[in-house]
Amino acid sequence: SGSLPPELKALDEIRQLLFFRNALEGKIFTEIGDLQKLRTLDFEENSFTGQVLDKVTGMSNLEHLRASFNDFEGTIPDNIGQLTKLKEFWIADTDIGGIIPSSIGELNQLESIFMGNTDVSGELPPEIFSSDQLAQVDLSDTDVIGELPSTLYTATALRRFLVYSTNITGILTEEISNLVNLEQLWISESNLKGPIPENIGSLTNLETLILSENVMTGSIPDGIGGLMDLTYIDISDNEINGTIPSSLFDIEALKFVYLGNNTLTGMVPSNYFKPEGIRDLFIENNLLTGAVPGVPEGKLTQLQELILNKNLLIGEVPDSLCELRDDAGGMIESLHADCSLVPDSQPQIVCDCCTKCTTAAGSEDT
Questions:
Q1: Is 246 helix (H, G, I), strand (E, B) or coil?
Q2: What digits encode the pLDDT tens for the residues 85-104?
Q3: Of the ranges 76-90, 218-232, 284-298, 351-365, which one carries the lowest mean pLDDT score?
Q4: pLDDT per residue as tens digits for the range 221-270
Q5: Which secondary structure element, helix H or strand E, spans residue 322, and what is its range?
Q6: Distances (CA, A) of 96 to 28, 43, 220, 234, 282
Q7: Greater confidence, 2 or 192?
Q8: Contact (Cβ atoms closer than 8 angstroms) between residue 284 and residue 260
């Protein structure tokens, strides 16, 4: 606890200062910038205040700057590009704001940028993707605006790209196939437009695809079945239409599927039970028709939530699904369907085991 000891100013040969996860507070003294041999400066998870970035831009040997989870303020200096050896630039969960200067493109050794949950604003500079080593970018929960720059598709080392809860707009283009190392793509609660690229299935290392709460259109490409490592897909709350491709359920790694609140049509794919470890399947509030397919014995044994309501499904929820309810020896805790009684009418779908019944008008009978 306490503040940084002033004796640190004399350690002109020191290579690392690691203060990670303590109860330190106060401001960073200006003279820290005189520690020219410093390579790692880690302030993460403390209660430091004041400005920090303007004190370190002259540290020519600095490789790792970790300042996240503090009360730092100020802006990113225009001369941030002087830190030409910088590999890690972490300022997430601070009060640092302002625009991202184009000089960030001069950091050609940069491997990771964590700016999530800050006051950073303005357009995403095309130069931010200049480093051939860039593997992780997190700008989530910021005030970043504007279209996705085309330079995104030149960052071929990129593994994680998170820009959820921003004002990012534009479309994902077919050039996304260049990002062959991408494992996590998370652009939700933004203003992303256009369709899911037809060649999305070429991203064979992709594990997480979250594009929810945008204004995306078009259909789910059949090639999505090429994402054989995909465990999590959320494209809910868009304007996506067409049918659900059966190829989606050919992905054996799939665990979490959220397709609700779109305008999807057609039937529930008959192979929806194929992924052995699927836990959540949300396809509510679409225009799906037909009956709910049955489940072969031994399938969907990990399923916990199946949300089918607010569709045009008919018939009965099959016994093979009811037998997977948690009160029947299975694991399903939530099973929703349009099974509420309407006066002088029959329910749209018959279900003896649902945990929640609705009608198209939205009334409930649990």
A1: helix
A2: 999 999 999 999 999 999 99
A3: 351-365
A4: 999 999 999 999 999 999 999 999 999 999 999 999 999 999 999 999 99
A5: helix 319-322
A6: 15, 14, 38, 30, 37
A7: 192
A8: yes
For residue 307, give the nearest of 320, 288, 323, 290 by alpha carbon. Answer: 288
Contacts of 143 (CB under 8 A, 6+ apart): 119, 120, 121, 122, 166, 167
> Residue 108, SS3?
coil
Radius of gyration over every alpha carbon of the chain, rounded to an integer in angstroms: 25
Query: 3-class SS at 341?
Result: coil
Task: Please tell me whether residue 249 adopts helix, strand or coil conformation.
Answer: helix
Token digits of residue 215: 């204004």
Burial of 167 (0-12, 13-18, 19+ CB in 10 A): middle
> What pLDDT is attached to residue 359?
86
Tokens coding 65: 């700057």
Res 311 pLDDT > 90: yes
Q: Which two tokens stand for residue 346?
A: 């029959």
Q: Take residue 255 and report the two structure tokens written for it.
A: 């665990």
**Residues near 63 by Cβ (< 8 Å), separated by ≥ 6?**
39, 40, 85, 86, 87, 88, 109
Helix segments in 75-225, DSSP class H: none
Q: Which 8-state DSSP code applies to residue 345?
A: S
Lowest mean pLDDT among 3-17, 77-91, 99-113: 3-17
Mean pLDDT of 197-217: 97
Rounded Cα gap, residues 82 and 85, in angstroms: 9
- Taking the C-alpha atoms of residue 172 and residue 175, their distance in angstroms, rounded to an integer, is 8
Cβ burial, residue 321 (10 Å; 0-12/13-18/19+): buried
Residue 93: name the closest of 68, 76, 66, 112 by CA. Answer: 68
pTM for the structure as a whole: 0.94
Q: State the Cα–Cα distance between residues 2 and 307, nearest whole angstrom.
A: 51
| Identity of the amino acid at 81 | G
